[in-house]
Amino acid sequence: MKQITNILLALILIPSFTVAQLENDEILENLKSISSKNDFIQQSLTSTSIDSTIYSLITTQVNIGTLNEEIEIPYNHQKLEYLGFMHPNKTKLFKANPISSQNNNTPELDKKLYIFKYEDFYVSLESKNNANILNLYYTLRAINIIKIRYPDLYKNLFLNSMEFKTKKPKYGNWVNSNKAFWIAFNTNPKYIASNNTIFLKDGFFSNSQVEKYRNIALVNIDSENILGKSETIGSRPLYNKKKNSDNHLSYLKDGLIESIAHEMIHNYIDLAYTYNKSINEIKQNRGKLNFVLAEEIAVLNTSLPYFIKKGGLNKQIISYYYKNIFDYNIGILKKANLLNSYGAIFTKEFADNNWKTIFKLNILD
What we know:
By secondary structure, the chain is α/β, with parallel strands linked by helices. Helices cover 47% and strands 15% of the residues. The protein contains twelve helices and seven strands. It has helices at residues 2-13, 17-32, 47-63, 130-149, 151-159, 235-239, 244-272, 277-285, 291-310, 315-335, 339-346, 355-358; strands at 80-86, 113-118, 121-125, 174-186, 193-198, 201-204, 211-222. Helix 4 crosses helix 5 (151-159), helix 4 packs across helix 7 and helix 7 crosses helix 9 (291-310). The chain is globular, with a radius of gyration of 22 Å. The chain starts with a helix and ends in a 7-residue tail after the last helix.
């Protein structure tokens, strides 16, 4: 009887993190089962050594012209932290503006989620099924490819965004920066991806009345549409493969990299509008009739030329986006007689109607 009592007492005294640890072990094992041809034993290595090896693996493949979808790399096991199945507010990132149904600032995150941290990135899943484990693995892969294959993009959209560009804004009385990046797999996007900025006030600059905002740049990826089931929306129209799973995998290996970059350009507008005149004008026109279409084609026509120049992205996805989004949106704006007026917001002086020259942001040049 005493032995049974001791066992029951021991069970009661088991730390609460044990369940999370078991869950963590399960997820990590599933991640490790997603094999990589270039995986290596990381246990005896420092985190810096692991990063150095990953860097070498990517650059070696890039130097021989390997497309993004063919790059084989692991992630840094030491950097991945499973925070648990929790509401995002429990991460304490949102203390200045908690996510809730009352303020409705980010309804897609207002629930318990499986949350992971990797460097300055948070990744959330609504379930831990096999598809979402794949989503997690390839998000970690995308982060490393963006950092190493596209360092100038990573610097402009991520690293530099974590610093305050100025203490003296031209528009308004506040300055934005990002303190972290959140990639969420949910069903918030209408098609594949969407963006959001969670604004978080962080006091004032010293001896100043200018407010500081340390925000979360959010990228949503539709976990249903990328599965390749729909003939009209998501990964299948992009890659046109017979098996749903092949379309899903192609998107994760290729399109996800472009989606993250694309949505971060939208978020850049939220970041820079208080000190950048041209960005401020874009921000002020949000909400006008069909202006969302003009911003979309300008962002698309900023990310795609960059990837065309740097290489790595599947030409099929580039062709699809130009034909089905850029050209389509141009047609709608033309019918509404908005092309010239909206074009002038992005390029002040233009003599011809070369819309690919006009609708573009100069933040990746």
